[in-house]
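SAMPLE LOG
Freezer: B-3
Tube label: C17
Construct: single chain, 164 aa
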Amino acid sequence: MTIAAADLDKAMVAAWIAGNLDAVHTSYWDVNDVDDYPVLHDIEATPGQPFPYTVFEHGAGSITTRMSGHSLSENHVINDVPIQFRIHAAQTPTKTAKQVAAEVAEEVMKVFGGHPTVVPSGLTLDNGSHLITQYLTDYGIRTEDQNYQWIVSYLFRLDVPVAV
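STRUCTURE (predicted):
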């Protein structure tokens, strides 16, 4: 993981918290589980994790542009980083797993982009700038009889200072 990737993770978690996405998930949970499990996971979930929960993954960023200047602070790269949010949901007494997954995915898209009526706010990086989040796609797949997964994919474009 690079400094840019770690910075992006930190900014995404801050946006997640500001968007109140934990509450969206935990509204489906048993009240006794709320303080025992996280909602957002990096790569894989905690064993025994209640549904719904979200796992995010980011692929290797690709540098699309390099810029240099006369001083160290003028060296930058434009880095495109693919991100996926995988929302895992289970059937509830009143909703199918697909309905739960779609509802949570809609809230994620309100925060990060892709929702048809809500313009997301940008991310704030400690080192560099978030230029744009490009929504790529979202889709759902059934994973078990009463479980469903909704995947929301993005490309985050970052302007990152580098020392060369």
